[in-house]
């Protein structure tokens, strides 16, 4: 032992004593070192050689190990290796006791797992410094480990939460009409929880609404926004609201609830097979593409709107682009994941990549969807996991959704003996679509519920004829070709916003009788009536032909500015749709 | 060189006395016992011309001499260890003689 300075006193009496294992074959050194350690306030266990040191280590679990390098039976190097191995991820400092000065021997100590050296003769001050330093290191290591465990625990619970949220989110995103024959979609698991959402639902009148959305952000925050989005989308679509109304509501709902910086890039689509029309609204997603029957690119609908949840109601533009789509033509849209896919060299798949795929499948458009997927996975080097892709093929015109079966509980309908009349004036007409409200009133008659689709279709036709031709004086002859369509709907939107005068009056008269009941719908407007030219035009004429087919009676008066439609329903059997 | 070193450093012994308290006598006995053992090992190793055993015994003896403040003996052990490491039995024999002389001088000083 060195004599310099007085023996150090235990400096920190508050600190819990450590258990120190001292292994030295030399009894004198063992005695002195053991006593020095005790003097510093710690407890000691003593071993005479390496093997005994290892078994004492296992038995007593000391905090620090002081090991002589050269010992009989098992030397300090092997003992250090075994002790370090048994300590696992716990930090047990091993300090070699040595008078070895050759670098090779010191290297051997380090290689065996030694953390430090203490040279003979022992210096009590240095011993104290080393024990304190290693105690701090041990404490930090333990803190680190326990914090790591806490973090791991929190991470596990976060993952559980996310899995739960994903289950709910999947149910929300996958209810509805996604199984419709005309649809094909791919939503990779990662994409879904990355804030991608895909919704589909039918209006009572048969049109299909689709929503492909991409929330900013990831995980829970993105999924939370999807819930109200889906709820509003499904509820309003099933009540018959038009795309425009749904867009307004979605935007204002999301703007209200989402924090700044979180919004939803989306494409909303209405597919109307009966009229051969699609309405497309694109707010922040890549171009929607429409391919012809030969796979040729017909249209691209570029985003011209702000994403949902960004703009205030005044600045938000809910007007979709209306396009003609013939049966067999296909619409494709996707989220950013597609065009932002990168290959190993960091290049973007991009718009050009999409166009190459479309080009490569001329003549076989039914292969485009798969072609796009395989091109992406080839480009990316592995199957792309952050992609949402949707394809809609326009169905034949006679494709109509099956009427939703409704239980006939007509017993109470005998009380449904009433007449109501609503007159909507310019300001109301500009701001809202009254039809869902009227439809709800009609569906209070249980006997009519099975014909909800037909009723809504007829109501829509009557109302839009009154509005577009009666009040806005739009010429349906424009709707002969696609350019005309665009013009027509542009004009419709412009004239509607400028509407100052005029009214539309909807009267509903329901009389129950012994067999069932009779419903008379009358729609009258302040316009000048219509010429018969319009009914010859293909698309426009279809509207009234459809009404005639769905209703039991159809009659015009006042030069067509007044239309009367009669529905009859009977107790006890389901009328045809 | 070993002549200039103290046979024992009294300050070290004093510090050991304070450290060991009642066990100081035990420490002295232990050191003596160990020293006898090491001397026997050194002699046997030299006789058998086992320079590795010689080196190990010198090394271990050197450690406890250092801790006991026996500076001259420690130095002699160091030289013996070096001779053992070099495999030089002539030097080893010389070093052992020096160790034995130093130990004879040290013995009466340990109390």
TrEMBL record, chain A:
GO biological process: phosphorelay signal transduction system
InterPro entries documented for this protein: Bact_Sigma-Reg, CheY-like_superfamily, HATPase_C_sf, PPM-type-like_dom_sf, PPM-type_phosphatase-like_dom, Sig_transdc_resp-reg_receiver
Top-level taxonomic group: Bacteria
Pfam hit, one: SpoIIE
SMART domains found in the cross-reference section: PP2C_SIG, REC
Keywords on record: Hydrolase, Phosphoprotein
This protein's name: Fused response regulator/phosphatase
UniProt KW Phosphoprotein keyword: yes
PTM sites of type 4-aspartylphosphate: 68
Organism: Pseudomonas abyssi
GO MF annotations in UniProt: phosphatase activity
Domain Response regulatory: 19-135
Gene3D superfamilies in alphabetical order: 3.40.50.2300, Histidine kinase-like ATPase, C-terminal domain (3.30.565.10), PPM-type phosphatase domain (3.60.40.10)
UniProtKB/TrEMBL annotation, chain B:
InterPro entries xref list: HPT_dom_sf (IPR036641), Sig_transdc_His_kin_Hpt_dom (IPR008207)
All residue ranges annotated as the HPt domain in the record: 20-111
An example molecular function term from Gene Ontology annotations: protein kinase activity
Record bears the keyword Transcription: no
SUPFAM superfamilies: Histidine-containing phosphotransfer domain, HPT domain
SMART domains according to UniProt: HPT
GO biological process: phosphorelay signal transduction system
Keywords carried by this UniProt record: Kinase, Phosphoprotein, Transferase, Two-component regulatory system
One Pfam family, short name: Hpt
Phosphohistidine carried by residues: 59
Domain of life of the source: Bacteria
Keyword Protease attributed: no
Protein's name in the database: Histidine kinase
